Amino acid sequence: MKQKYIIGKFIRQGSALAMIGAALCMPYAAGASNATTFSEQVNGGTLSTDIVDAGGTTVASPTVSFGAVTYNFDNSQNATGTLGAAAQKIRVANGRGGAAVAWTLTMAATGGISTLWTGGAGTLDFNNTGGTGQLTVDPSVGTITPTNSFTATGLTKGSSTAFNQGVVDSVTVLSASTGASQPGRWDFIGVSLSQTIPALTTPATYTIGMTLTVT
Amino acid sequence: MTGLVVGFLFSSMNMVHYQPFGTNVSVENMNIKARVVATIFTVAVAVLLARQSSAMDYGGIGVRPANPDPAVPNSTSWFLYSLKPGEAKNDAVEVENNSAAAEDLVVYAADSTPSSDGGFALKQQSEQMVGVGSWVRFYPDAPPAPSTIGADGITVLCGIAPASADVPKSAALTKAQSDALATWCQGKTLVELSLKSMDSKNVPIVVSIPATADVGEHSGGIVIQKKAVQDQTQQGSAVILTTRVGARIYETVPGTILRSLQLEQFTIARNQKLPELTITVGIRNGGNVSVDHTTTVEVTDTLLHRHDKKFVRDIQALPGQELVTNFATPLPKFGRYTYHAVVTYNDGDLVKTLSSAVITKWFIPWVEVGTGGGILVILIAGLIVLVRMRRKKYSGNGWVPYVLDADTSIMVLAERSGVEWNTLARVNKLKAPYAVTKGQTVMVPPGSSLLQKKTVVVKKKTPIAKPKKRTPAVTKKTS
After folding, report:
1. What is the interface pTM, i.e. ipTM, of the complex?
2. Does B366 touch chain A (CB under 8 A)?
């Protein structure tokens, strides 16, 4: 019994020594290739859009200001603004991994197709072709600036389009084909906005909500 | 902040260190060293990542399918289903906050709506959903106890789909529990979430296809946007901007699938504000599913007989819509260019090709041409004036004939005539050595001092070329 215990002890000690020996030998064996294996995984991200300032920080309350017009009894006028300026750039970041997937950046009224410009007691249409107010968006005059080392290949600026209730309720600002960089990140500035102000429009400061959606 | 979601996962880290032969190294010592090195490395990577995070100035919110199928292309970005009418599917949406701050978010489903140029857009939260947007329900919370979501998912728990044999029936619940479960099973159309920075959450969803859904593609999306109402005070009239992100849903109800594209528009126009040319290709999808296609526009410089540019774009046309694709290219300075568009797409195993008419355009830099032309006209006019002045100078008009009464030199004659000798020579067509002899008639200016000695009567204007023949009467005044 004791002999068996001693043998077993020797075996156990032998195994332990063998393990230690093997462990000690491993560095020498590995020393031939000096192999150090790391494994890391970079997960694909998501698509997103935001309005950022010149430094790339998200603008808390992005707005597009329009030039003022003076009350007119007889004629309609155009108030113009620019969506995307140096201090409020439209930024689209596509952090998806894998095969490139198309995406589209669109703009539509936050309140839906029945929403209005509101200012005091006055209101103004943004999508009426009958002369009560219409907003035209012209992304074609905008400028795309890729960040980092990405390119603008595969991106398409939208055509100049006027909102027209029930016909054009959403305007395409920018779109990317599968040929666009993925991942990729771009800033877009200089989109022209023009709102017709009908004659006899009540003097007021008008505002309207617009939503940029990237899908 | 990072805009790209980058997750570094060190799934394995087998560190083996070389030791010089004969060095005494204990396992424990080696492990300690390995741990130290690993710790240093990890800290270094963490610091590096932190630096990268601070350098990446973009932070955003994102949404994507939580259960992508590796066998289905694009399923990591879009929800792609082929469910039959009346069928339902369990799924989940992953909502991410990749910004530096915690965000309160709202999540909802929306119908797709056509955007200009054939773009894909989603309805606003304020609008009524009647399509795919109304087919999605969210289940952000666990079902009321004692119910749990089994392997067959919410559809079975809630009786949306037939239960399998091993799923406990709700009949085992009390009435109160059953009522609570029934309420829970209705799901939510809108979910509010609070996510910490760099946090994400999976929200289970059920997509139920109405029994009346038509064959073909139905699209929509799951949208997230920030819940907080932004401080939108501004000076003067303004558009108040909000941003949101959507993950598309494409549900194709099986049946007769029709893929049909028509090339409806191909135009070339100058950009009104930029020195660019906009090439527009409009494609109508007359089928009942989205069609991926390739649009190629070839630009050829016919004067130099070379392909100037080739634009290729792979893009998707939504069913029932016209997709307008714009290609921007610098405005050519000069030349004759042709433009030709070709669209290819697959209809099953067939590759179909649509070809446009060839458009030819001349490009002439009118401003430069006008400027150059103007300068040329001025130069020509100046030249003409100069020639006329020279002709006038050497024409001898108004000069009178004078008959030399003695041999002399042209230099003396010119000095006495008050003109340059070469002018005198050219008017009188004298050649070298410009000899002038007694009796020779020469034309001289009327104020010449030569004439003070003689009176020359000219009855007829005498051409210069033949002065002798054209001086019929000369009266010499003898001194």
Report:
1. 0.81
2. no
